[in-house]
Amino acid sequence: MSTANNSNLLSPELLARLERLEIVTRKVFRGRMKGERRSKRKGQSVEFADFRNYVAGDDLRLLDWNLYARLDKLIIKLFLEEEDLHFYTLIDASMSMGFGEPTKLEYAKQLAAALSFVGLIRADRVRIETLGQSPSERGPVLRGRASVWRMLEQIGAIEPGRQASLAEGVKNFCLRNPGRGVVVLISDLMDKDGFETALRYFVSHQVDCYVIQVLSQEELEPDVKGDLKLVDCEDQDEAEVSVSAPLLARYKQTLDAFVGSAQDFCTRRGMHYLLTNNQLPVEELVAKHLRRRGLVR
Amino acid sequence: MDTLFRNTLGPYGWILLGMIPPAIFALYFLKLKRMPLEVPSTYLWHRVIEDLHVNSLWQRLRKSLLLFLQLLIVGLAMLALLRPGWLGQSLEGRRFIFLIDHSASMSTTDAAGGQSRLHEAKQHVAQLIDQLDSDMSAMIISFAEQPDVVQEFTNNRRLLRESLDRIEPTAGRTDLSGALSLADGFANPARVMSEEDGTEFEVTQQEQVELYIFSDGRFRGVEGFSLGNLEPVFLPVGTFDANNLAITALNTRRNEDRPELHQAFVQIANLSEQLQTTVVELYLSGRLIDAAEMELPAGDVMGATFNLGDVGSGTLRAVLDPAAKVGDSLALDNTAHAVLEDRRGGRVLFITPGNAALESALETDRARRLAMVKKEAPDFLETVAYQQQSQAELYDLIIFDQCAPKSMPPANTLFIGRLPPDAAWQKRAIQEPVSTPQIIDWQRSHPLLNLVELGNVQLIDSLLTQPPLGGKVLIDTTLGPIFAVAPRDSYEDAVLGFEIVGRNSAGQRTVNTNWPRRHSFPNFCLNILEYLAGGSLLPHTQSHRPDKPVELQIASLATELEVELPDGTRTTLPMASPGRLAFHETDQLGVYTVLEGQEVLRRFAVNLFDREESDVRLHVRQEGEEGVLEVDEISIGYVDVRAQSPTTSVRRELWKCLLLGALAVLVMEWYIYNRRVYI
Asked: Mutate which of B28, B33, B45 to disrupt the A interface (most A C-beta within 10 Å)?
C-alpha cells in the first residue's frame, strides 16, 4: 500500500474503494497459473464440478470413496479448477492524448492504474501496454499485490508522442499477446484511418474487450471563435474553418454520429463501449459506470 | 441616344471604376489571416467541413459571400452609371421649345387618375426635361389667350422643372399663333428683313430647334406662319371620349312688354356622344330662385328662359348639375355669371340759353322720376368742367337747345334747332332753314313719338335733318325731314330741326312753334327722357371673355378705383382717363366688382362661353384601318403636323432602382459581416 501512496495516480481514497472490487469477465478463459478464478479446466479446488467413471491412470486421490462403498463402482469426483485471469490495459499514448486539462493521457493512465490495481489484488495477470510501443519496451506481466509499485512505475513512465495508427498498434498487441482475457482499450479513437479495423482484431482475438473512449471537454464542446486554421498535432494536417453557429452545430452532429458509430460497432460485436470525458473523476467512472457495465464488481 | 445605355462617365472615371473590382478581389484574398490553433485531431473537423462541402459550388459561394456581395454592389453602381433605360427615342437635337397649352379645355379631368390634361402635359414635359443632356437647352412657353415665356433657354434642369411647376390652368381660349411667333423669335433670332426688296435672309447659320407642342388641339390651324428652323412635334393630350356639358350663354334682358321685369336666358350645349339630362339652377345673389330640368340629345344645344320678375339688381349665377353616369370632365363651364343692373334714373344735362316751355316740361314730377336734369347756359360748353364731366360720362343725355358743342360728347344727345357738329350729319344737311313746313307723317311706332300727336302742330321755320347712314327719319314734312335719330358708336343722337323758342337777329325772343301748347309736347319730353336717358343698361349686362382686357366707362371722377376679383382679393387700379377704366386681370371666371371706397360703381361678369373650348373631345382623324381613332393633325402655315403619342417619347430609366438595390445589398453585407449569419 505504501508504494501506491507515493504515486499521484491513485489516491488513498480511491485505493480504499478499489480494494473491494474485482475484474469480472463474462467469458471463462483458461489461465496460466493457479489463481482465484474459475477455469474451464477441472482441477483442484473446493468447488465440486462433476462425477465421472474412473479410468485407468486417474489419480486415485480423486476417487469418491463414499460412492464406491454404496454403489461398488469407482467414480471420480471432479472439482473446478481456479486459475488466474489475463488482464490487459492498452493505452493510446499518441500526441492527441496529450490535450485537455487534465490531459486525456493523464486520465487514461489514472484509469489504467485503477483497473490494474484491482487486477493485481485479485491475483490476475496484469499487463500494461501502450499502442505503438516497440517489443523491447514491453513491460513484464505483473501479478500479485506486491507488483503494485512496479505497475505504477510502469504507467507513470508512459509519455505522449508515440506515432502509431490505432489499427497497427492493436494488431501488434494481439500478435504479442495470444492469451485470452480481458482487454481494456483506453483511447480517443481519433484515427484518420478509422477505428473499425483496430477493433476487428479484438473480435478475432476472442477477448473480452472494453473500449473506453476518452475525450477532452474541448473536443466535446469546442470553445473556438473566429477564422481559424486548425492544425492537427499528430500529422500537422490543417483545416480552415470560420466558426459560426451552424458550423458548431454541424460539429456536434458529427461528433454524436462518430460516438454513436463507435458504440454501435462495439455493441454489434459483443464489445463494451464507454465514453468518458476527462472531467469525470476516475473514482466515479470505475465505481459507477464500469461497475454498471460489468467490468468490475 | 436611343441606346439601352447612356454613358455618364469619362474614360478616366471608367478606368478608376474598373480598378475597384480587382482591388476588392485582392483585398478579399489578402484579408483573411486565419489564426492557427493546434487541436488533438482534425479528424472530426474535416468531416464537418466535408459535410458542409456537399453542395460544393453553393458552399464556395457561401464561403465568399461577402466578396460576391461587394462585387454586386460595385456592379450595380456601374450599371447605374451607365443609366440603362428603354423607349428612349426622343430628344434628338440640342435646342428645344416646349409649348404648353393651358387654356380652359386643358382643365379637363380626363387624364389618368382624374388628373387634368395640363397636369398630364406637365408630366410629359418633366419627363422630357429629365432626358436633357448637359449640352441641350430648352425653353418653356405656356399659351392660352396670350403666350407667356415661362422659362427662357437654359440647360439647368432644376430651373426648368421649377418653371414648369409654375404653370397654372387658365380659362382662356387657345391661340397658338402668339406662342408660335414667340418661339419663332427665340428660334430664328438673326433673321433680318432687307429693306430694299423686303426679302428675309438669315445672318448666321441657324440651328434646328425642336418645338414640342402639348395641347388638346382645341384650335384651328395657324395660317400664314413660316416655321423656319422650328421642327414641330405635336403631342396631343386628352381622350376622344371626354364628355362635357357646358353653359354657352347666359343673358338677361327686360321683358319687352313690361320693362321692369327681367328675363334670363341660359343656353346649354351637350358636347358628348350620349343623351344627357341635366338640371340648371339659377341663383340670384346666392339665393336659388329657379331651376329647370333639361334633356339634351348628343351634340345638341338648348336654351331655357327664366322669368325673374322685378328683382332689382344683383348677380345672377347659373349652375349646371349634370347626371353622374355620363360625366362631365370640364368644370369651368358649368357655372355662368351675369349682372343685373337696376333701372336707375337717367342723368340729363340741359344746355339752353332759356326755354321756359321745355324747362317746365322737364321739371314735372313724372319727369323727375325718370331723370335728374341739370340745366346750364351755353357758355358752360367752353369750361373745363364740361370737358371732364362729359368725358367721365356723367350724363346719359345731353340736350343742346339752340347751341352745339365743338365735338360730339360720349352720351346720347338731343339737338334742338341745331345740327350736330358730326361730319356725318353736316354733309347731308342743307344749312339754310326752310319756312313753314307742313308735317305730313311721323313714326308713331318709334318710342320717341309714342303717344305723340303732331297733326295740330305748326312750325315757322326749321332746318332739314337728313340723318347719316343707319339713321331714321321720324318726322317728315312737305319740305323734308325735320326730326331724325341716328346711332353713333354706342350712343344715339336725335336732332329736332326746329327751335321751340329762339331769338331773332335783334336778340328778341321769338316763338317758333305752337307745339308747347299741345298735349303731345310733355309726352314727347317724357319719351325723350325715357328713351335717351334711360336706355343705358344694355352694354353693362354683357359678358366678358377671360384673359381679355375689359374697358369700362364709369361715371366717376376718382383717379383710382378698386376692383374686387371673384376670389375676393382686391386690386387698386388707376383710371386710364376720366371715366374709363381698363382692366386686364380677367383670368378668373365670375363677377368682378368695381368699387370707389365702399360704393359699388359697377359689376361685370367674366364667363368662358366658348363652345370651341368646351368641346373637350380631341379632333378625330379617321383614316386607313377602320375604327382606329387618331388625333387630327394641326396645320401650321403650309405644314401639317401629325399627332404623335406622347407616351412613346418617355425614356424609363433604371438607375434609381439600381442605386437603391446597391444600397440594400450594402446593408445586407453589413448585417452578414457583423452578425456572422450564414445562409
From this structure: B45
